Amino acid sequence: MATGGSGARRDARTSGADRRGAIATLRENDAIDGVYACTRKDRMLARTGSPYLALELRDRTGALTARLFRDADLHGARFERGDLVHVSGRISRFRGELQAELASARRVREGEADPAAFLPVAYRDLDELDGFLEALGGEVRQPAYRALLDDVLGDCELRGAMRRFPATRAAHHAYLGGLLEHTVAVAQLAVQACELHPRLDQDLLLSAAIVHDLGRTRELALGAEIAISEEGRMLGHVELGLRMIGSRAGRAGLDGPRLLALEHCVLTHHGPDAAPQRRFALPEALALHRINVLDAAVKGAIEHGLGADAAA
Prior knowledge:
The structure is a single chain. The strands form two sheets. A five-stranded mixed beta barrel has the order 1-2-3-5-4. A two-stranded antiparallel ribbon has the order 6-7. Strand 6 and strand 7 form a beta hairpin. The protein folds into two domains: 6-114, CATH 2.40.50.140; 122-304, Hypothetical protein af1432 (Orthogonal Bundle). 38% of the residues are buried. It has helices spanning 6-10, 16-19, 72-76, 126-137, 143-153, 156-164, 178-196, 202-211, 216-219, 230-252, 256-267, 283-304, and strands at 31-45, 51-59, 62-68, 84-94, 97-107, 220-222, 226-228. It is an alpha+beta fold and 312 residues long. The protein contains twelve helices and seven strands.
């Protein structure tokens, strides 16, 4: 079944060459010959007892069910779920839905295709978001927090990762650039919260908002799908983020109570259960948690409906 949805809308920003052969443009009787992400692979048995492959192919514009009957085991040995695959065949209609009847499928060779080209991308302009992030970082006045943010935002590799990575695998902001979009939103809400509640430490809350999800750049891995890295599976993005902050704090001159406060905010941004006493020790930590939930929940509802789990 071919589907479009939000991915189809995001594809408006891809080039004409990228759109050629896009799933959203395929019609009955079209030939299909190109590279797609394989997001499902099941070996099935036909009524005759012969095996066939049931696949799902994806690109930025949608998803397409595919079947491969001839030499299914031979072709099936050439790729796995999660690979980018080169397929050829023809589009047919089965029970009213489009599907691909494939003649061949194989894993693409290294360098043949960029996995990021098959993942959904942010709606918002990333250069504009980058500019907002730079301006928000400039609002921090406390020298040690400002030095930490200068170190983070001055790291071209890390800034590039924030532009490239999603915020989650499949919940809110689950697309390329989603991490940057979510970070900017949380930081903007942090500034507004401080305007409404002047007794909050804006330097602390804003710094925490900007760095709270840095660990996502190491927790997630980009392939044919958004996946979890090995260190992400074992440690999670909160611990990875705390380690990233700790490695930079010394050269920023950030230590003592200020570092402890920042670490507490990051540690508890998904709720107080991660804290030793299972409670927030600072109002800024509570504020960051609520702001993070607000942006994640609203974005998740917009993208996936009101029943979506935004914190996944």
